[in-house]
Amino acid sequence: MRKTQTNSTIIYCDNESAIALTLNLKYHARTKHIEIYYHFFRKKISYKDVMLQYYPTKEMIADVFIKKMPKVKHHWCHATTKVEKNLNLSL
Questions:
Q1: Where are the domains of the chain?
Q2: Is residue 28 pLDDT above 80, yes or no?
Q3: Which of 4-8, 31-35, 78-82 bottoms out in mean pLDDT, i.e. has the lowest?
């Protein structure tokens, strides 16, 4: 692909503590247990390659693909993502 990135990639996150940790680049004793690969995101954020943005848990439509949920929220997620059943499954 070899294309240069012109804008930051936005990652939506429902964990405000995680967002705060990535924005505060100062070392703290409480964060010493964090695995090295998590620091990858801190570096990407400092280079403005990635931007974390808070998004409320109730509005995470991607949950339909990874979590069990009540029927009402399941239907809302499908309607929001515009995922439809394809009953014509000819092989």
A1: 9-81
A2: no
A3: 31-35
